Amino acid sequence: VFGREYLEMPLGFLYGGGEGVGGPSLLHGLSLVCIGMVLGHAVTRFLDPAPSGRRRGVMLLGGLFLLAVVASALMWDWSAPFATVQGIADMSLRNENHPIYFSLGLGFTIASVLLCVLALDVFQRSWGSRLQFMGKTSLFTFSFGNILLYASPDPHRGLATAALMAAVFFALICAQSYLFMRLMMPAAPDAPPAWKALTGRFQQLVRGLQQPISGAVDAVLSRRRAAPDVPPRNPA
């Protein structure tokens, strides 16, 4: 209409297609939820004190990682290996919803989760505690990190530029998530008054934004609980 495409952006939020930087979509969000549920179950089994449970966790994590590696190797363009790297860097494979985007993401996610579990839970490394804010603010990182990516310039500028942009915006997203965690934490008793006032106002703002959504969910759940049970129909 009038020379403009109005359906590209709302459709992109459903399946993640379109041009430029890919924002959050229903398809990618549900994929993260499904993978997270499976990985959570596998990690729980992996940390099970019982040998049988630990063995199941190792088999599940190993099987998923092997599946991701084999699938990525089969879909990789070995005739032009750096073309696949370029497609990942400029987000073209992501916006095409290419299966290799999901298989590579699954492999790197499993490796990262396993590394963190081994460092923090198995070997009890204290240095890893400083990185726990990434897990505590994962939902904020996913949503507001995508919003921050919209501010990035066109990623189709070559491999070196795309890699530099990825490093810069990764650092910005981590800093944004760390600041959010600090603002949501109770201020220390000896903190400066300005910091106490800032954290208090920020937490009040977040609660104000969450209240309408929480109220709507509570209203729906209360109606479902109050609804009388409908007896099943007599098949006769």
From TrEMBL:
Keyword list, A-Z: Ligase, Membrane, Transmembrane, Transmembrane helix
Single GO MF annotation: ligase activity
TM ranges: 26-47, 59-80, 100-121, 133-152, 158-180
Phylogenetic lineage: Bacteria, Pseudomonadati, Pseudomonadota, Alphaproteobacteria, Rhodobacterales
Record bears the keyword Membrane: yes
Keyword flag Membrane: yes
Protein name: Long-chain-fatty-acid--CoA ligase
